[in-house]
Recover the amino acids of this structure.
């Protein structure tokens, strides 16, 4: 039976979600809300949605499933608004927020006693691109799509959501909302604080040491990439998960103090153990598997500084889906640069490793 789906927020996540739903459910009607007319027009023109509005309340009563793909504050405001609307009985309301406790708490408070179902959700996928123009039907492929059930989540709710979102090709998982926020505070929210703090420190330092900017590459570039993230979104995330994030900051301060004391004392063994344990712990983590925000599969090729070497490798990979290509050549001290190629799936990574290894004498490394 065809359903009517209402997606509020036609940015990268909402528009990509619409494409995924259309892929497996072409008979479903998808309604879209967005404040910006530009995104509404793009979503309509590209066939992501069937109808669009800038009046959120107007389409809500028509929907069998409502997905709020909006900033956290706006998601909370719309949940409160939905509580006063005449919605279809049994309608499923879900969201796509990066923190869950605050949203689930508001839903349980304002939607209690209403003939609706609510389940919190967090699709752990993203891109440096934004807006409906950047929508990608494969954005969620193999990424975790996390559900945080609430007291308003009936036994059949998750089954219906998985069916609706089957075209996303995501990995669905359930977790308690508070535990979700604890975990993401460590592996997502706090790293953004670190990256931005490191950039702020470096900018000040570079005022007196001008070569700092020129030499910044390699590890510094990788550690600070996420400092370019949208500030409004991250302000909202931190303020909606403040207690857990403050605890992570305090814990990290203690760890910095410990290594600082080891350096001060000249404790070579403690310093060596500090680096060795970190190396072993990173190697043991499932950090290379698709499933986190902005995660991908990376392959590194040592390439000589010769004409057309990159074109030769790309020709070998014709037909393979690439996420990104980067040449790590800053500050190199030999004749070789490092070509970093990112893939969306493990299968593409393995195929690329085989093709390059079999057809060249370049060193290929998977990290």
């Amino acid at each position: 039976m065809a359903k009517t789906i209402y997606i509020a927020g036609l940015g990268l996540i909402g528009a990509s979600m619409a494409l995924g739903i259309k892929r497996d459910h072409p008979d479903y009607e998808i309604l879209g809300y967005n404040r910006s007319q530009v995104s509404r027009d793009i979503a309509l023109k590209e066939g992501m949605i069937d109808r669009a509005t800038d009046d959120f309340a107007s389409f809500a009563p028509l929907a069998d499933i409502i997905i709020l793909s909006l900033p956290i504050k706006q998601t909370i405001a719309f949940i409160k608004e939905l509580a006063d609307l005449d919605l279809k009985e049994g309608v499923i309301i879900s969201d796509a927020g990066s923190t869950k406790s605050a949203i689930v708490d508001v839903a349980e408070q304002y939607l209690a006693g209403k003939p609706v179902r609510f389940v919190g959700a967090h699709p752990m996928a993203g891109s440096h691109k934004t807006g409906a123009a950047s929508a990608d039907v494969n954005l969620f492929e193999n990424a975790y799509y996390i559900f945080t059930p609430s007291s308003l989540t009936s036994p059949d709710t998750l089954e219906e959501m998985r069916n609706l979102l089957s075209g996303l090709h995501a990995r669905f998982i359930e977790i308690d909302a508070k535990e979700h926020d604890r975990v993401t505070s460590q592996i997502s929210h706090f790293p953004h604080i670190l990256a931005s703090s490191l950039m702020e420190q470096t900018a000040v330092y570079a005022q007196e040491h001008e070569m700092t900017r020129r030499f910044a590459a390699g590890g510094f570039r990788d550690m600070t990439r996420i400092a370019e993230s949208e500030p409004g979104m991250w302000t909202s995330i931190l303020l909606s998960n403040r207690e857990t994030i403050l605890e992570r900051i305090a814990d990290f301060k203690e760890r910095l103090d410990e290594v600082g004391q080891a350096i001060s004392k000249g404790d070579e063994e403690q310093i060596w153990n500090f680096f060795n344990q970190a190396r072993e712990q990173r190697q043991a983590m499932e950090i290379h598997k698709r499933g986190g925000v902005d995660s991908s599969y990376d392959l590194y090729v040592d390439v000589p500084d010769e004409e057309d070497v990159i074109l030769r490798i790309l020709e070998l990979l014709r037909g393979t889906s690439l996420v990104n290509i980067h040449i790590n050549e800053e500050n190199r001290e030999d004749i070789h640069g490092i070509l970093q190629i990112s893939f969306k799936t493990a299968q593409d990574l393995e195929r690329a490793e085989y093709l390059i290894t079999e057809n060249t004498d370049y060193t290929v490394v998977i990290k």
Q: What stands out?
A: The chain is about 45% helix and 20% strand.
